[in-house]
Amino acid sequence: MLYSKLFGRTKHEVPADANSKNAELLTKAGYIDKLAAGIYNYLPLGIRVLQKINQIIREEMNAVGGQEILMPALQPIDIWEQTGRNKTMDEILYRTKGGEKDFVFGPSHEETVTPLVKKFVQSYKDFPLAVYQLQTKFRNEPRAKSGLLRGREFGMKDMYSFHANEKDLDEYYLKVMEAYLNVYSRCGMEAYVIEASGGAFSDKYSHEFSIKTPAGEDIMIFCEKCKFAQNLEIAEGKYDNPSSDEEEKPLKKVEVKRGKSIEENARAHSCEDWRVLKSVVYMVEEMGPIGILIRGDFQLNEEKLTRYFKKRLRPATLEELKKFDLVEGFISPVLADKKPNNKISFIADQSIKNMKNFVTGANEKDVDWANVNIGRDFEVKDFADFVAVTASFNCPKCGHKLSEVKVVEAGNIFKLGTKFSEAFDLKFTDSDGAAKSVVMGCYGIGNTRMVGTIVEASHDEKGIIWPKTVAPYLVHLMHLGNDDEAKAMGEKLYEILQKERIEVLYDDRDCGAGQKLNDADLIGIPLRIVVSKRTLAEQNIEWKERANKEAKNVKISDLVEKIKEFTNI
What we know:
Blueprint: H1 21-28, E1 32-36, E2 39-42, H2 44-63, E3 67-68, E4 74-76, H3 77-83, H4 85-88, E5 94-98, E6 101-105, H5 110-118, E7 129-138, E8 153-163, H6 166-186, E9 192-196, E10 206-212, E11 218-222, E12 229-231, E13 252-255, H7 262-268, E14 277-284, E15 288-295, H8 302-309, E16 313-315, H9 318-323, E17 345-349, E18 358-364, E19 367-372, E20 383-384, E21 403-417, H10 419-423, E22 427-429, E23 435-437, E24 439-445, H11 447-457, E25 459-460, E26 463-464, E27 475-479, H12 484-499, E28 504-507, H13 513-523, E29 527-531, H14 533-536, E30 540-545, E31 551-555, H15 559-566
Parallel strand pairs: 3-7, 15-17, 17-20, 27-28, 27-29
Antiparallel strand pairs: 1-2, 4-6, 5-6, 7-8, 8-24, 9-10, 10-21, 11-12, 11-21, 13-19, 14-15, 14-16, 18-19, 21-24, 22-23, 25-26, 29-30, 30-31
Helix pairs in contact: 1-11, 2-6, 2-11
């Protein structure tokens, strides 16, 4: 490709609304162009990268028996009503009408693929079956940001597998997990497999594939010793129980002027933050207000709460607290008259189960209790893990200190079970003649997101550094200066490389050396070949690998052979 003919050029002004490295560099280098928040045009360079990623994905999905199909992006609303996800995913659905009928633009395709497969399978002999597509998705993302990492319109490879039983799904799930790791490795990235929430797709845990990068919008809880990785949403950790050996002390009412925060509470009572019993009230769908108790130095994890209740929930408003006679900042399971607070039900995080002598409010302004104890002074309906794990916790596997690492989620896989097959009555006849529901799995990789993720993980102060497997071209050729011989040699080498089927972008522009060299660094093609009057004097070219700082001279006569060695991918 001649750079002078390339549609889309470099820009050396940082886009005003580029809030991430991938948005900044891909726009400046001429790979993408923003149409609106979370919506991008892909220019020729960007398309070439995307096509290479897609090919790697196709090869790995085909290797595990996946068959490529293509489903409509526009889906009738009634199939979403059939699964109930028209409500649970309402906030992100783009809706439209066609005549008198309602449609959605698909954020995923479980509702489409399940009735499709129902038309073609009847027997246990039809399984396992896996179909996948590379399709455009639409999600009304309230936080469209970070360039290609969080978009409203984006590309995805979504694969769906169908099985006669859980055992078969489990075996296939592991095969796909390995295939995903192959995809990331071939794209030049190291991925961490992280257990995560199933969200709107599954009641079970899923697995995420995450890439370390300072621009990551997710937090991975990671143990450097045993390499155990967890998503922050569901992470577990070990912690000390500092008051377990104490004797229970007499309950004591304390009149105190203090603020509402844990820190102000602890200062007022001259105690540690962990001794404060924190009470947080949530409004749970169909249940009303529920009090959650946890150590004062810990934070609640709303994802764990949602999984526990299996219902929507949110923090209670000040007006709702007043409605139930609860005093903000002084909410407690023990009232000022020493009686248990029966105005609402309380459940508790496991962190307080064996602790003693808490400080807490009395549900009355400027009145607290000291030496509050579970069992003696109040009861809770249940204990569960609700704590938000941080780097202050220890690994649940080996006990080593955990760390928090910023990551980008690059893909995820779910065990759907029979959730969708039951919704669409997708059954098969088993070997014993019984009709059974099909067991399903789903597997997603955001292919356009991968473009942005690679840039976030592989760049420097000068620009992008593409891995050879996904680079738009393998060689960036240029001549420098106005020397006719250098220009003629550049054109000759361009023809030679094309005949050898070596992917080459030739910068044939009549512009300064600085501009060409800066553009080459910004675009990030793996190998830069420079022809100049100086190099020709020794029958050399300048060879510079984008990932290395040093350049070297290579004989023109050896160039093709050396490029083939370099690009052997």
